[in-house]
Amino acid sequence: MEQATSATGTAIVLGGGGVFGATQVGMLRALLESGIRPGLVVGTSVGAINGAAIAAEPSIAGVENLAALWASLAESGMFTENVLARAGTLARYRTHLYSAAPLRKLLHAHLPATFADLAVGFQCVAASIERAGAHWFISGPLTEAVMASAAVPGLLPPVVIDGEHFLDGGLVHSIPVGRALALGAREVYVLHIGRIEQPLKPPRSLWDVCLTSFELARRHRFVEEMANLPADVRVHVLPSGEEKMPLVSIRYRSARAVAARMQRGYQAAAEYLSAQPDTA
Question: 92 falls in which pLDDT band (50, 70, 90)?
């Protein structure tokens, strides 16, 4: 039997952000240590990776499994800084710099086979090229769905499922709070990587125009959903612990800093949760 497609109660929503998503691992640890167990997990892009892992085992042991996955990323060869290797991949495929094989192998090792094997409800989103819109994965093979949601344009190849091509879910839902609400959640914990904590400023150069435009396109849906929350819903946007985040980064060499990023996310989220009257 496949998992239910609706949920009530508490939801965790995990946004995108590449290797900066290590921040969410620390946030998840803080949530679980506070006694918060979700009935629903919704993720996009790297948040789909983290979300699937915690939906499989919503416990401290699940966080440890996820931390081990992140520790393996730097050793897997996926984020190699070898210029010749990246140039070779680009020359061969013409659409992306990195092979998806190392990430797929890691996900197979750390995630259950299907959505039905998860302990709590989980959904992730990807952008369908053919339909020019969002596609929500709710059942079937888990790794391919997560790969589709995390297929960063230009870095990883589109994922083909049943003849349809998918790219990163952040293109259509950067932080999908609305999806959790539509599925019945009334207490929502938002885990992000830190960009939304930084207000946008008018651009001062052509490069700034490009970055700001991209961030507006990525952020506006979340801003609108947060501005129109139902009266009976509580949404907690956990602090990331990051003082400054780039609006765009394709420098995956920052994977070396994942442990420190996890710790900052943990400390910031733990302090926030300890100040809430309804959390232990």
Answer: low
Is the distance from CB of 155 to CB of 203 less than 8 angstroms?
no
Q: Determine contact, residues 51/223, Cβ cutoff 8 Å.
A: no
Which helix or strand (DSSP H or E) is residue 160 part of? Answer: strand 159-161
Q: What is the pLDDT of residues 62-88, one digit of tens each?
A: 999 999 998 887 665 555 554 445 555
Q: Do the beta carbons of residue 260 and residue 234 sit within 8 Å? A: no
Count CB neighbours of 164 within 10 A.
Answer: 15
| DSSP string across 111-126 | S-SBGGG-SSEEEEEE
pLDDT at 13 over 80: yes
Question: Which residues are within 8 A (CB) of 135 and not within 5 positions of it... i.e. 6 or more apart?
Answer: 125, 126, 127, 128, 148, 164, 166
Place of tokens 């496949």: 2
User: Among 23-27, 113-117, 208-212, which is the least confidently predicted range?
Assistant: 208-212
Angle between helices 101-110 and 60-76 in degrees, nearest 10: 160
Cβ atoms < 10 Å from Cβ of 265: 30
pTM: 0.88
Task: Report DSSP state, residue 141.
Answer: B
Alpha helices in 34-182 (DSSP H): 46-56, 60-76, 83-93, 101-110, 142-149, 177-182
Active site residues: 45, 168
Estimate the crossing angle of helix 60-76 against helix 22-33, to 10 degrees: 170
Range 84-111 burial, b when 16+ CB lie within 10 A, else e: eebeebeeeeeebbbbbebbbebbeebb
- 259 membership: H or E segment, kind and range: helix 258-274
